[in-house]
C-alpha cells in the first residue's frame, strides 16, 4: 500500500476503533445522530477528503476513499461518512460550491429538475433526516437539494440505519452540468460503489470474529478451529473476504485510473453482494448460538450486510447491467471486452 | 488480516503484446471447433506449440542464451491469458514452460540448461510431471518411488500416475525418495530428471471419463539415471516443489478453463434467446471473471516483485476452480441444453466441459488440500 494509504488507514482505524463500541452501536439504532463522532471525523477532514479531487490537484483519490469506506464497514460506523465523501466529490467535479453542513447522497432516478426548482422523491436516503443537503444526478445534471425543503418520510434498514425518503415539490436547488460520462445512473452507481467497500469491510469483521471464536471456543475437548469441517468453512470465508475486498478495491481504483467504471462498479456490487450472503451464513454457523444472541456484536456486521447488498441495487440488477454491456459484443467479443474494460487508458 | 491483493496495472509493453498474440491466435486457430477450444490446457498439438515457440512465446522470461526471450513475467501473463481465453491447445509445452523450465533454470546444471531449455522454448521438447503414485494421491510426501545410488549415478524403481501427456513427452521431472524412509516424510525426497525413452521406463496411457487419453501411469524398473539427474539439492525436493506452488496455483489457467461455456451463453443471448435468467447468469459470471482476473494479476505482480504469496495463490485457486466448475452447471441451469458432442456449438462445449470439470478441483492440489493450506495460513492449524 502507498504511504498515503497507510496514513489514511491509520487515521480512520484510530478514530473508529475505540469510539464505535457496542453501546454506541445499540444507541444509534434509535435513528439518532452521533454528533460527537461526526465532529471528530470532520476535524480530520474525512467527509471532504475528495472535495478537492485528484483531478483538480487534491491530495486524495478513490484508492484512499476505499480505505475509509472499507473501515467504515469494518467498524459498522453508524454515520453517512462514505456518502458525504462521494457527494463532495460530485459537487467538486461539477463546480458547485459545497455548502456548510452535512451532505448525503441519493440515487437520482426519482428526481425532476426544472430550472432552479425540483420535484420528486429521493428514496431511502442514508440518515436523510439529519442531513442539510443531498446530492443526486439526473440525466445531465449534478443537483444539490436542501433537505429543509423536503418532507422526510422516515425509514430504516435491517441494522437500524436511517433510510429516509425525501419528498419535495418545487424546492429550490443548485445544479450544474454533469461531467462527461456521468448521468442519471451516476449517483446510484457511486452508492453501489460505497456499499461494495463497506461490505468488504463488514465481511473482514466477520472473518476476524469467526477466527477469534474458533481459536477460543472448546468442544469435545479441543478448539473448534481444530475440526476440519470448521477449518474448511473458515477457508471459504477467507476466500469470500479476499474476493470482496478485491472486487471493491478494483472498482475504486478504476475511478482513479480512468478504467471503465461502469463495468468495474457493477462487478464490485455483484461480487461483494454474493460474498455478503455466503460470509454471513458461515460466520453465524461458526459462532453458533452465541452469534445469534443480541449481546454478541456479530450481528452489527451481518444485519448490515443483509441490507447493504440490496441497497443501490441487488446483485441481479447489477448483473443485468453487465449483461447489457457484454451481450452486444457477442461471445467472440467477450474476452476483448474484459481486457479493454480493465486496461488503463494509454 | 494476513493476506492482501493490490490492484495491478499492466505495463504498456504487456498490453502491446496482447494485440500481437491475438492476431497470431486468430490465424493459428482458424476453424478450430469450439468443443476443442473447451479443452484449453489439456489440448495437445505439437504444431501449435512449435508455432508459438517460433514466435518466442514459450520460455518468454528465460535468458536469451537458453532460448528465452528475457521478457517480463507480466508480459508472459498477458500471453498466457490470451492463449487460454482463445482455447488454444497448449498442453504439449505447458509443463515445460510453467514448471520444468523455470526449475532447471534455477537448479539445473549448466549442461542440462544448454541441452534442454532451447528445445523447450522452441516448443519441441515436452515435459511431464511425476507427483502422484498408485496409492499416493494428495499425500504426496509419502511417495514410494525410490532412486538408490549406484555406480556414481542412481537406479530408479517405482511408478508415477496421472502424469498428463507423459506418453507424448520426452522427459519427466518426478519427486522420488533418494534417502531416508517413508516415516521421514518430507526429508529425503528429491526432484529427478528422467528421460522417458530410457530403458526400464514404461508409459501406459489411462483413458479418462471423456474417452480421451490425457494421463498415464509411468513405471520405472531399474532405470539408470546419471548423477546429474537430481535437480537441486539431494533431499530438498519437497521445499523446491513447495516454492513453485504460488506460480502454479494463481495463473489464469485456474479460472479460465470453462470460459468457452460463458462465451456460448453470451452467443445465445446475443442471438436474442434465453431471456432474463440467462442475462443475470451472464452478468454474475462476468463479475466473477472481473474479480478473479484482478486477483490473479495481483499475485503475478507480487511474484514479479519477488514475494511468495502462497496463501493468496491457494485462495485464488480454490475460488477460480469453483468458478470454472460453476459455469457448465450454469449453462445447464439457464439453458437446459442436453450435452451432446454431436449437437450444436453450445451442446458440444457443454458436453466436453461437464466431463472435464471434475478434474479442475483435483489437478494441482485438491480443493481439500488447498483449504487445509488456507486454514493453516489463518492460524487454525
Automatic annotation (TrEMBL), chain A:
<dbReference type="InterPro" id="IPR009100">
    <property type="entry name" value="AcylCoA_DH/oxidase_NM_dom_sf"/>
</dbReference>
<keyword id="KW-0285">Flavoprotein</keyword>
<dbReference type="GO" id="GO:0003995">
    <property type="term" value="F:acyl-CoA dehydrogenase activity"/>
</dbReference>
<dbReference type="Pfam" id="PF00441">
    <property type="entry name" value="Acyl-CoA_dh_1"/>
</dbReference>
<keyword id="KW-0274">FAD</keyword>
<dbReference type="GO" id="GO:0050660">
    <property type="term" value="F:flavin adenine dinucleotide binding"/>
</dbReference>
<comment type="similarity">
    <text>Belongs to the acyl-CoA dehydrogenase family.</text>
</comment>
<protein>
    <submittedName>
        <fullName>Acyl-CoA dehydrogenase domain-containing protein</fullName>
    </submittedName>
</protein>
<keyword id="KW-0560">Oxidoreductase</keyword>
<dbReference type="InterPro" id="IPR036250">
    <property type="entry name" value="AcylCo_DH-like_C"/>
</dbReference>
<dbReference type="InterPro" id="IPR037069">
    <property type="entry name" value="AcylCoA_DH/ox_N_sf"/>
</dbReference>
<dbReference type="InterPro" id="IPR009075">
    <property type="entry name" value="AcylCo_DH/oxidase_C"/>
</dbReference>
<feature type="domain" description="Acyl-CoA dehydrogenase/oxidase C-terminal">
    <location>
        <begin position="193"/>
        <end position="313"/>
    </location>
</feature>
Automatic annotation (TrEMBL), chain B:
<dbReference type="InterPro" id="IPR046373">
    <property type="entry name" value="Acyl-CoA_Oxase/DH_mid-dom_sf"/>
</dbReference>
<feature type="domain" description="Acyl-CoA dehydrogenase/oxidase C-terminal">
    <location>
        <begin position="235"/>
        <end position="378"/>
    </location>
</feature>
<dbReference type="GO" id="GO:0050660">
    <property type="term" value="F:flavin adenine dinucleotide binding"/>
</dbReference>
<dbReference type="InterPro" id="IPR037069">
    <property type="entry name" value="AcylCoA_DH/ox_N_sf"/>
</dbReference>
<dbReference type="GO" id="GO:0005886">
    <property type="term" value="C:plasma membrane"/>
</dbReference>
<dbReference type="InterPro" id="IPR052161">
    <property type="entry name" value="Mycobact_Acyl-CoA_DH"/>
</dbReference>
<dbReference type="InterPro" id="IPR013786">
    <property type="entry name" value="AcylCoA_DH/ox_N"/>
</dbReference>
<keyword id="KW-0274">FAD</keyword>
<feature type="domain" description="Acyl-CoA oxidase/dehydrogenase middle">
    <location>
        <begin position="128"/>
        <end position="223"/>
    </location>
</feature>
<dbReference type="Pfam" id="PF00441">
    <property type="entry name" value="Acyl-CoA_dh_1"/>
</dbReference>
<dbReference type="InterPro" id="IPR036250">
    <property type="entry name" value="AcylCo_DH-like_C"/>
</dbReference>
<dbReference type="Pfam" id="PF02770">
    <property type="entry name" value="Acyl-CoA_dh_M"/>
</dbReference>
<keyword id="KW-0560">Oxidoreductase</keyword>
<dbReference type="InterPro" id="IPR009075">
    <property type="entry name" value="AcylCo_DH/oxidase_C"/>
</dbReference>
<comment type="similarity">
    <text>Belongs to the acyl-CoA dehydrogenase family.</text>
</comment>
<keyword id="KW-0285">Flavoprotein</keyword>
<dbReference type="InterPro" id="IPR009100">
    <property type="entry name" value="AcylCoA_DH/oxidase_NM_dom_sf"/>
</dbReference>
<feature type="domain" description="Acyl-CoA dehydrogenase/oxidase N-terminal">
    <location>
        <begin position="12"/>
        <end position="124"/>
    </location>
</feature>
<dbReference type="InterPro" id="IPR006091">
    <property type="entry name" value="Acyl-CoA_Oxase/DH_mid-dom"/>
</dbReference>
<dbReference type="GO" id="GO:0016627">
    <property type="term" value="F:oxidoreductase activity, acting on the CH-CH group of donors"/>
</dbReference>
<dbReference type="Pfam" id="PF02771">
    <property type="entry name" value="Acyl-CoA_dh_N"/>
</dbReference>
<protein>
    <submittedName>
        <fullName>Acyl-CoA dehydrogenase domain-containing protein</fullName>
    </submittedName>
</protein>
Amino acid at each position: 500500500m502507498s504511504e498515503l494509504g497507510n496514513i489514511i488507514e491509520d487515521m480512520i482505524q484510530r478514530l473508529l476503533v475505540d469510539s464505535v463500541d457496542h453501546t454506541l452501536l445499540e444507541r444509534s439504532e434509535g435513528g439518532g445522530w452521533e454528533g460527537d463522532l461526526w465532529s471528530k471525523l470532520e476535524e480530520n477532514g474525512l467527509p471532504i477528503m475528495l472535495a478537492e479531487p485528484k483531478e483538480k490537484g487534491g491530495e486524495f483519490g478513490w484508492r484512499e476513499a476505499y480505505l475509509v469506506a472499507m473501515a467504515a464497514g469494518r467498524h459498522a460506523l453508524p454515520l453517512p461518512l462514505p456518502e458525504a465523501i462521494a457527494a463532495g466529490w460530485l459537487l467538486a467535479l461539477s463546480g458547485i460550491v459545497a455548502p456548510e453542513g452535512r451532505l448525503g447522497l441519493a440515487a437520482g432516478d426519482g428526481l425532476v429538475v426544472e430550472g432552479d426548482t425540483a420535484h420528486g422523491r429521493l428514496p431511502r436516503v442514508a440518515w436523510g433526516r439529519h442531513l442539510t443537503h443531498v446530492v443526486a444526478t439526473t440525466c445531465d445534471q449534478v443537483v444539490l437539494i436542501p433537505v429543509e425543503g423536503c418532507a422526510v418520510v422516515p425509514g430504516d434498514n435491517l441494522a437500524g440505519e436511517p433510510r429516509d425518503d425525501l419528498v419535495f415539490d418545487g424546492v429550490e436547488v443548485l445544479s450544474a452540468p454533469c461531467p462527461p460520462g456521468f448521468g442519471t445512473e451516476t449517483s446510484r452507481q457511486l452508492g453501489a460503489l460505497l456499499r461494495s467497500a463497506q461490505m468488504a469491510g463488514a465481511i473482514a469483521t466477520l472473518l476476524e470474529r469467526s477466527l477469534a471464536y474458533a481459536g477460543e471456543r472448546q468442544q469435545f475437548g479441543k478448539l473448534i478451529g481444530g475440526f476440519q469441517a470448521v477449518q474448511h468453512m473458515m477457508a471459504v470465508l477467507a476466500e469470500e473476504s479476499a474476493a470482496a475486498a478485491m472486487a471493491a478495491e478494483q472498482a475504486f481504483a478504476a475511478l482513479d485510473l480512468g478504467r471503465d467504471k461502469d463495468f468495474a462498479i457493477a462487478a464490485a456490487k455483484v461480487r461483494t453482494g454474493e460474498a455478503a450472503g455466503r460470509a454471513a451464513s458461515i460466520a453465524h454457523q461458526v459462532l453458533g448460538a452465541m452469534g445469534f444472541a443480541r449481546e454478541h456484536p456479530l450481528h452489527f456486521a451481518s444485519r448490515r450486510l443483509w441490507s447493504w447488498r440490496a441497497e443501490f441495487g441487488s446483485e441481479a440488477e447489477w448483473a443485468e447491467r453487465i449483461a447489457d454491456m457484454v451481450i452486444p459484443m457477442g461471445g467472440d467479443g467477450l474476452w476483448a471486452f474484459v481486457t479493454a474494460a480493465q486496461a488503463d487508458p494509454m | 488480516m494476513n493476506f492482501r491483493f493490490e490492484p495491478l496495472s499492466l505495463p504498456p509493453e504487456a498490453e502491446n503484446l496482447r494485440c500481437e498474440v491475438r492476431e497470431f491466435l486468430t490465424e493459428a486457430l482458424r476453424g478450430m471447433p469450439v468443443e476443442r477450444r473447451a479443452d484449453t490446457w489439456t489440448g495437445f498439438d505439437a504444431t501449435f506449440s512449435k508455432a508459438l515457440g517460433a514466435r518466442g512465446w514459450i520460455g518468454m522470461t528465460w535468458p536469451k542464451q537458453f532460448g528465452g526471450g528475457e521478457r517480463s513475467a507480466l508480459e508472459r501473463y498477458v500471453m498466457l491469458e490470451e492463449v487460454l481465453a482463445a482455447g488454444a491447445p497448449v498442453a504439449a509445452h505447458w509443463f515445460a514452460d510453467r514448471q520444468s523450465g523455470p526449475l532447471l533454470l534455477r537448479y539445473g546444471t549448466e549442461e542440462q540448461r544448454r541441452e534442454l531449455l532451447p528445445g523447450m522454448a522452441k516448443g519441441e521438447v515436452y515435459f511431464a510431471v511425476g507427483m502422484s503414485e498408485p496409492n499416493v494421491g494428495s499425500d504426496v510426501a509419502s511417495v514410494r518411488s525410490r532412486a538408490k545410488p549406484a555406480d556414481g549415478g542412481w537406479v530408479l524403481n517405482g511408478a508415477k500416475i496421472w502424469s498428463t501427456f507423459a506418453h507424448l513427452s520426452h522427459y519427466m521431472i518426478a519427486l522420488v525418495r533418494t534417502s531416508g524412509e517413508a516415516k521421514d516424510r518430507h526429508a529425503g525426497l528429491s526432484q529427478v530428471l528422467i528421460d522417458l525413452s530410457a530403458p526400464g521406463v514404461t508409459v501406459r496411457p489411462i483413458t479418462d471419463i471423456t474417452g480421451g487419453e490425457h494421463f498415464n501411469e509411468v513405471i520405472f524398473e531399474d532405470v539408470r539415471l546419471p548423477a546429474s539427474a537430481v535437480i537441486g539439492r539431494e533431499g530438498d525436493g519437497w521445499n523446491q516443489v513447495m516454492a513453485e506452488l504460488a506460480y502454479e496455483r494463481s495463473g489464469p489457467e485456474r479460472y479460465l478453463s470453462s470460459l468457452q461455456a460463458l462465451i456460448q451463453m453470451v452467443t445465445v443471448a446475443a442471438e436474442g434467446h434465453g431471456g432474463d435468467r440467462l442475462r443475470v447468469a451472464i452478468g454474475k459470471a462476468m463479475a466473477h471473471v472481473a474479480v478473479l482476473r484482478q486477483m490473479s494479476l495481483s499475485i503475478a505482480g507480487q511474484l514479479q516483485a519477488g514475494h511468495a504469496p502462497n496463501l493468496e495463490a491457494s485462495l485464488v485457486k480454490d475460488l477460480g476452480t469453483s468458478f470454472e466448475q460453476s459455469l457448465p452447471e450454469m449453462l445447464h441451469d439457464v439453458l437446459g441444453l442436453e450435452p451432446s458432442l454431436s449437437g450444436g456449438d453450445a451442446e458440444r462445449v457443454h458436453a466436453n466441459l461437464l466431463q472435464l470439470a471434475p478434474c479442475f478441483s483435483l489437478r494441482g492440489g485438491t480443493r481439500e488440500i488447498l483449504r487445509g493450506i488456507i486454514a493453516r495460513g489463518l492460524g487454525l492449524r
